[in-house]
């Protein structure tokens, strides 16, 4: 993590005052400086169960998140601690400690549900912390999970209008992985006389009962919800009490050697698991969340909750994408401008040189944009970048032209200075003066043409210069007594022809230049289309991974059901898997058509070679 991202102690991310949630500006400001991807681990659970203490262990610190030593709940709202990820370089570990649920003194279960819901929405790993055992009462206390379907929407209202009710199975793709931590666990890990793992213990507690009566369905409901929302493999860790009863009162100040070795060993395994297996937080579509995006995400969700609406994953992604894509355009434009600023110092340069530099830096800028942008499915932002770059390029072309004009005029002025002196001395106002004048002038034009690096206006400036000197040549011609009337007429004709030739030369040069620019523009567009295609494939791949993860977890669930002879549930899961596969295929097909067709059809990004009118 960069120095800017160092945080000596936790700060409040979401305030909870009198039941009203509010994002702390300081925390968002802090996050906005973290451009690394974040692994977000949040802890939820009943109040006074040691959540803050557990989070301090994940931070590798004895203190940090405040603990309370009374029966009153301590943590309010959601607190955040950003630390360098201990195992993944270039990643920030964001620990979210939440307000304890079920505090009777608070008596606002709706507020509890929103805290739980925010922890789910913001994290990539959700740790559920409880004390004692995972019995039925412990599972029932996790009733907040049951409410999640009403509290989170995947798709926007418009997009969901033509779809059936949101299916639980889809949440699996976007929800964090789930770890249950049991504190002060004193039992033996044995089921029906056989030694089992902690994970088996959790799965045993989440086992569904057969039957359809109310009692069975009430029993099954929270379990079914946990299974539906949080994909297998779910993890479980059981910790013994951390210290001897007499030491418990001062747990926070105890040294490692005063803690129970089994507790140290279990928390060690837990921390290792979190550090190695918690993934970077992603949003719908698979885009990796940075600290900056996490801050925006918190604001978007809390504002939605405050306005009385239900947080929607898709709306959040669209809002985030708009924010991020706007910044991506600005950053990419800066890359182009910084690159071209150096080129400007070399002005005047040829068309070939300026267009190849322009091509190079606009390709770099597009790559920069692609790195950062996401969900720019209609190419709206990539086109905005292209337009901004084009506008800059037009100005640069003008500046290059002006620099060339200045240089060429100065050059001609210098080259003609001797001749001007001779003119003033009347050296050409004599018999045979016109021939002398023409020879001198032609030699200067030749010398001018030999001069390198004159830029794009060389012939135009020469043309203008010779035109300006036309009357001067004519008056010398008429003063030359050596010439007859016929000679003069012929010379005049030649003078006109020479000027015409010069004009043609200028036009020819312009023609070549515009062909060079057309070719460069064609290559630039091909490059942009290629980069868009690559980005599209990459996003598609991310979505595929998201879907694979969901399908895999459902398959595991199904295997389990088959093993446990719960055919009905297995059939249901089978249906969900088929639905997931089908909707995934449909989505890709739609996106593929959209992504490839839209930019071309809109005429904003023309297929190579058809967009000459866009050339500045
Ligand atoms: N018995 C027991 N006590 C613990 C454990 N971990 C922490 N404590 C103590 O329990 C008390 C509450 O710990 P916290 O970490 O503040 O608990 P919390 O869940 O964050 O509490 P709230 O923020 O109020 O919800 C403190 O006195 C801790 O020292 C544990 O594993 N077992
Ligand atoms: Mg706490």
From TrEMBL:
Annotated InterPro entries: G_GB1_RHD3_dom, GBP_C, Guanylate-bd/ATL_C, Guanylate-bd_C_sf, Guanylate-bd_N, P-loop_NTPase
Keywords of the record: Coiled coil, GTP-binding, Hydrolase, Immunity, Innate immunity, Nucleotide-binding
GO MF terms held by the record: GTP binding; GTPase activity
KW Transferase (keyword) present: no
Chain coiled-coil ranges: 483-583
Residue span, GB1/RHD3-type G domain: 35-279
Nucleotide-binding among keywords: yes
Transmembrane regions: none
Xref: PROSITE patterns: G_GB1_RHD3
Pfam families: GBP (PF02263), GBP_C (PF02841)
Gene Ontology biological-process annotations: innate immune response
Assigned protein family: Belongs to the TRAFAC class dynamin-like GTPase superfamily. GB1/RHD3 GTPase family.
PANTHER family referenced in this protein's UniProt entry, alphabetically: GUANYLATE BINDING PROTEIN
Protein's name in the database: Guanylate-binding protein 1-like
Natural source organism: Carassius auratus
């Amino acid at each position: 993590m960069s120095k800017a991202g160092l945080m000596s102690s936790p700060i409040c991310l979401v305030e909870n005052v009198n039941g009203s949630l509010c994002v702390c500006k300081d925390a968002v400001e802090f996050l906005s400086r973290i451009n690394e991807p974040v692994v977000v681990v949040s802890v939820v659970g009943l109040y006074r169960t040691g959540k803050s203490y557990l989070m301090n262990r994940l931070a590798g610190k004895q203190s940090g998140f405040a603990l309370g030593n009374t029966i009153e709940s301590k943590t309010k709202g959601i607190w955040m601690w950003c630390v360098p990820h201990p195992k993944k370089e270039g990643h920030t570990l964001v620990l979210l400690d939440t307000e304890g649920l079920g505090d009777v003194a608070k008596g606002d279960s709706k507020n509890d549900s929103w805290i739980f819901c925010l922890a789910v929405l913001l994290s990539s790993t959700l740790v559920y912390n409880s004390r004692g055992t995972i019995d039925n009462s412990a599972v029932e206390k996790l009733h907040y999970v049951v409410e999640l379907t009403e509290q989170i929407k995947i798709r926007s209202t418009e997009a969901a209008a033509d779809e059936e009710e949101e299916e639980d199975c889809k949440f699996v793709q976007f929800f964090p992985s789930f770890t249950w931590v049991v504190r002060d666990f004193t039992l033996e890990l044995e089921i029906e006389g056989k030694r089992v793992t902690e994970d088996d213990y959790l799965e045993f507690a989440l086992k569904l009962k057969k039957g359809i009566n109310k009692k069975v369905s009430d029993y099954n409901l929270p379990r079914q919800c946990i299974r539906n929302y949080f994909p297998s493999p779910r993890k479980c860790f059981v910790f013994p009490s951390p210290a001897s009863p007499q030491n418990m009162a001062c747990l926070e100040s105890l040294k490692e050697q005063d803690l129970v070795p089994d507790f140290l060993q279990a928390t060690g395994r837990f921390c290792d698991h979190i550090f190695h297996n918690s993934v970077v937080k992603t949003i719908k579509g698979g885009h990796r969340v940075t600290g900056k995006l996490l801050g925006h995400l918190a604001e978007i969700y809390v504002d939605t909750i405050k306005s009385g609406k239900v947080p929607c994953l898709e709306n959040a992604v669209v809002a985030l994408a708009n924010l991020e894509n706007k910044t991506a355009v600005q950053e990419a434009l800066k890359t182009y401008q910084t690159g071209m600023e150096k080129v400007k110092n070399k002005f005047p340069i040829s068309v070939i040189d300026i267009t190849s530099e322009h091509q190079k830096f606009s390709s770099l800028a597009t790559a920069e944009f692609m790195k950062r942008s996401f969900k720019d499915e209609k190419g709206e932002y990539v086109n905005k970048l292209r337009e901004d770059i084009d506008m800059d390029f037009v100005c640069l072309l003008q500046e290059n032209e002006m620099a060339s004009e200045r240089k060429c005029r100065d050059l001609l002025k210098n080259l003609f200075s001797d001749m001007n002196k001779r003119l003033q001395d009347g050296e050409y106002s004599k018999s045979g003066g016109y021939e002398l004048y023409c020879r001198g002038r032609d030699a200067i034009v030749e010398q001018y043409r030999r001069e390198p690096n004159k830029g794009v206006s060389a012939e135009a400036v020469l043309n203008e210069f010779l035109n300006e000197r036309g009357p001067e040549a004519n008056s010398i011609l008429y003063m030359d007594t050596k010439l007859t009337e016929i000679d003069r007429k012929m010379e005049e004709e030649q003078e006109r022809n020479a000027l015409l030739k010069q004009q043609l030369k200028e036009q020819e040069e312009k023609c070549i230049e515009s062909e060079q620019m057309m070719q460069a523009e064609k290559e630039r567009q091909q490059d942009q289309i290629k980069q868009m295609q690559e980005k599209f494939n990459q996003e598609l791949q991310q979505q595929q991974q998201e879907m694979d993860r969901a399908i895999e977890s459902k398959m595991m669930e199904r295997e389990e059901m088959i093993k446990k002879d719960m055919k009905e549930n297995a059939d249901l899961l089978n249906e969900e898997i088929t639905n997931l596969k089908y909707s995934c295929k449909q989505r890709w097909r739609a996106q593929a058509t959209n992504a490839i067709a839209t930019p071309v059809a809109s005429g904003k990004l023309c297929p190579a070679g058809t967009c000459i009118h866009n050339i500045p």
